[in-house]
Amino acid sequence: MQLTEVKMLLKPVIKLIILNLPYPQMESKSKAEKSNTTTVTEFTLVGFSDIPNLQQILFGIFFVIYLMILLGNSIIILITRIDPTLQNPMYFFLANFSFLEICYVTVTVPRMLRDIWTQKGNIYFLPCATQMYFVLMFGGTECLLLTVMAYDRYVAICNPLNYSLVMNHKVCIQLVAGSWISGIPVEIGQTCQIFSLSFCGSSTINHFFCDIPPILKLACGDTFVNEMAVYIFSVVFFMVPFLSIVASYGKIISSILKLSSVRGRAKAFSTCSSHLTVVVLFYGTAAINYLQPASNKSEGLRKLLSLFYTILTPMMNPIIYSLRNKNVMVALKKLLLNY
């Protein structure tokens, strides 16, 4: 066989081999893409590690606050259960609100105390998602329950003759159950949507718990759809209840001003002042926190505001309702005298 014939026979084979060989540029590009894609198995919560000299002091302060929240709200629940004078819808809602506050702080504070004590903020993917879900659920429930409490005051002041009929025990249970249950599917969907994203680069969460804004900052690619979902969630569970509370108190104030008796007006205002104070503290700090622009410069302020509505408001709740409500004070004195 001649040399030219051998070349002709080998040419297709050589061509086929060359076509199937990987190009160096494509191979290096593939490796680069793989190196940029990381599977996040855990995050790191920064918390208050940026002020290392105050770690022991912060642990002591937050630990005492947590105990005060547990004790104060438990006392509210106890006296509303055992005192006969507090067996009405207003105090039924107050007891449920106190229980909600205990649940709310228990989701975040023990974890924060552990991180301060161990100087480690590592949290795995699933616990972080679980914490976010419960924070969203309890936060949404608090918005709805505050709205229910405002409606209760509206019926009591604006329609007192039909109060016992409108706010009967069955209706009260339905309103409380609706506040707890109605947001569960939404919060599950919100959490799943956030944690279905791909995370790349840094896995450090500049917060003391797993919250939506700082976690969205760690996501790869376009998060516009997720941000829109957060805004819709905020409107449904934040702005709608808030506007309902404003409308209720607008009618309440209008009815109070029509009362001829100065003593009657003072009594009506006193029954609403405690609830209004809690509403202002909770909605004021939460609104500033979630409506402010997301930027690195505002992270310190974001954490400070989060402390108000996740820790300080639950701590102030028993104090506000005790100092501003004569019936609660009388029931508390009876409890202390009996024990």
Characterization of this structure:
By secondary structure, the protein is mainly alpha-helical. It has 13 helices and 3 strands; from the N terminus they run ααβααβααααβααααα. Strands 2-1-3 form a 3-stranded mixed sheet.
> Low-confidence parts lasting 5 or more residues at pLDDT below 50?
12-37
Q: What fraction of the residues are assigned to beta strands by DSSP?
A: under 5%
Radius of gyration: 29 Å
Order of helices and strands: HHEHHEHHHHEHHHHH
**Overall outline:** globular
Query: Number of helix segments?
Result: 13
Class computed from helices, strands and strand pairing: mainly alpha
Summed over residues and divided by their number, the pLDDT gives a mean of 83
Distance between the termini: 114 Å
Strand order of the largest sheet: 2-1-3
Number of strand segments = 3
Q: Main sheet, how many strands, which sense, barrel? A: 3 strands, mixed
Give the helix proportion (percent range). Answer: over 70%
